[in-house]
Amino acid sequence: MFKDNAPINYDLLAQPRSQDLPDILALNFACSVISKDAMIECKNVVGKRPYLQPIEEIEATDIDSLVDFEFAEFLYRKGL
Fold it and tell me: Which of 21, 34, 49, 65 has the greatest count of CB atoms below 10 A from its CB?
């Protein structure tokens, strides 16, 4: 990842191979189960101690652009 034209999570002189990176989960906001009180208290939809459920890459397809939509449509037509 880069910000202001500089890497923020690694050293350019010691670039890690993507195969060696740790598994990191990212929120996709597809489904959040949280009480209204916890949401108000934490001011987010994650809470203090979330239980994160890993999902398959295809299930995690997010549609934020026309390219994303076309990719999702392709997956749908392929029956994936």
Answer: 34
d(CA 74, CA 77): 5
* Structure tokens given for 33: 């189960």
DSSP character at residue 10:
S
Contact 10, 16 (CB under 8 A): yes
* Overall pTM > 0.70: no
Report the distance separating Cα 72 and Cα 52, nearest Å.
23
Gap between the Cα atoms of 72 and 78, Å rounded = 10
Q: Percent of the chain, pLDDT > 70? A: 100
